[in-house]
Amino acid sequence: MASDPMTAFFQLHRDLPREGPGEPADVAWATELAALAPNAQMADVACGPGGDIAALLAAAPEGHVTALDKTAHFVDAVRADWGTDGRVTALKADMARIHNSYDLIWCAGAVYFMGVTAALNAWRKSLTKNGVIAFSEACWFTDAPSERAQSLFATEYPTMTDEAGVQAQIAEAGYEVLGTRRLSDAAWEAYFGPLDERIAKLTPDADPALKAVLDEAWEEADCWRTHRNEYGYLLSVVRPK
C-alpha cells in the first residue's frame, strides 16, 4: 500500500537523533553565556526527539528540562529515552503557549514557525527575573544567494532574512543580545549524516510518496553542502531589556 506524505515523513525521520542541525557545543556555549545555575529550570521548545536534552542537563545537572513538542511521536520518543529520569518532563504542547517560569528557554531551529519577534514576545512571561532565551534561526550569510538556495527556502521560509534582520527582530521584541554564533559544519552533519544513511536504506523499496520525501531531504542536504557559505543557522542568546 502506498504511503501518504505524513507517514512517509515519519518513515524517514523515525528514531533519528535530531530533527535539525545542532551539537552539544552549541548548548554548552549558550548555557555558559547565560550563566545558568546548576539547578536551572529549562524548557526545550519544539524539542523533536530530544537531541539537546543531554547537553542541557550537562550544563545544569541539578536542574530540570521540560521538553515540549506538538508532535506526539516526538514526545513519545523523549519519554522512551528519559522517562526514568526525574529531571525531564515531556509534554505535548504548542510552542506558542508556554506555561511556568524558566531560567532558560531553548529552541533549536523552530522559532520560524512563529517568527522571532512574536516568539520572544510570547515567551517573555515565562522567563524568570534573569532568564534568557537561546534560539537558532536560519538566515542568509550573503546578499546574493544562489538560485538553488533561494528555491529551497521559497516555500518553507519565504521571509528568511540575514543576520542583521534577525538582530532587528530581536530588538523589536525589546530584548538585548548577549551573544551570537553561527552553527558549525559539525552541527549540520550531526543532522544530515544519520539522514543520509536512512535515505540510502529506504530508497530501493520506496513508493512514490516516500520517494518524494526522500528526494526532498536529499536536496536539502546536498544544497547545504554545496552552498553552505550562503546560509546557515545563527544561534542567539537574548534577554529582555
Automatic annotation (TrEMBL):
Q: Which SUPFAM superfamilies match?
A: S-adenosyl-L-methionine-dependent methyltransferases (SSF53335)
Indicate yes or no for the key word tRNA-binding.
Answer: no
What Pfam family is a match, any one? Methyltransf_25
Q: Name one GO molecular function term.
A: methyltransferase activity
One GO biological process this protein is involved in is:
methylation
Give the top-rank taxon of the lineage listed in the UniProt record for this protein.
Bacteria
Ranges where the Methyltransferase domain occurs: 44-131
Keyword tRNA processing listed: no
User: What UniProt keywords are attached to this protein's entry?
Assistant: Methyltransferase, Transferase
Q: Which InterPro entries match?
A: Methyltransf_25, SAM-dependent_MTases_sf
What name is this protein filed under?
SAM-dependent methyltransferase
Which organism was this protein described from?
Sulfitobacter noctilucicola
Lineage runs: Bacteria, Pseudomonadati, Pseudomonadota, Alphaproteobacteria, Rhodobacterales
